[in-house]
UniProtKB/TrEMBL annotation:
Entry-linked InterPro entries: Antitox_Xre, Xre-like_HTH, Xre/MbcA/ParS-like_toxin-bd
UniProt name for this protein: DUF2384 domain-containing protein
Domain Antitoxin Xre/MbcA/ParS-like toxin-binding positions: 90-140
Organism: Mesorhizobium escarrei
Pfam family, one: Xre_MbcA_ParS_C
Residue intervals of the Antitoxin Xre-like helix-turn-helix domain: 26-85
Domain of life: Bacteria
Coiled coil: none
Signal peptide interval: none
């Protein structure tokens, strides 16, 4: 649905870094540690007025340690890429960042009135549930 290059864009990876725009290139980039700036960028895109949102993705103490080495762990990068993927899809569906944010941060009945962003952060399975809702909105089934 969403091209790997689009996920790389949301993560703020350099356009000239062609390898990061292929599926295995992006996987390799995540495994080797995304730059801490990718977390800053995604947090700002999703919650521009909330300086604490990044700590929902990575605990504050861990964030401070990662800042020292300028890299996220593979697991943290995987979580961040998952959030970036869903954000990119939400923007694609809603066409406006503000409307995508509204969708992600508002409780949704198809996920037991949980906020989509919380479900995405929780697990890969949760992210797939939100992707299914977005796909339904984009391609015309009830959501």
């Amino acid at each position: 649905m969403l091209a790997f290059g689009n996920v790389a864009d949301v993560l703020g990876l350099p356009i000239k870094e062609v390898a990061a725009r292929s599926p295995f290139g992006l996987i390799s980039r995540i495994e080797n540690g995304l730059p801490i700036g990718a977390l800053e960028r995604v947090a700002h895109l999703l919650a521009p007025g909330d300086a604490q949102f990044k700590y929902r993705l990575i605990p504050k103490a861990t964030y401070e340690r990662r800042k020292a080495v300028h890299r996220l762990s593979s697991d943290e990068g995987t979580r961040l890429a998952r959030v970036a993927r869903v954000w990119g899809l939400a923007v694609d569906v809603w066409q406006k960042e503000e409307e995508a944010r509204d969708f992600l941060f508002r409780p949704h009945p198809m996920i037991e009135d949980k906020r989509p962003i919380d479900v995405v952060i929780m697990s890969e399975f949760g992210a797939e549930m939100v992707v299914d809702i977005l796909a339904g909105l984009k391609y015309g089934s009830a959501a």
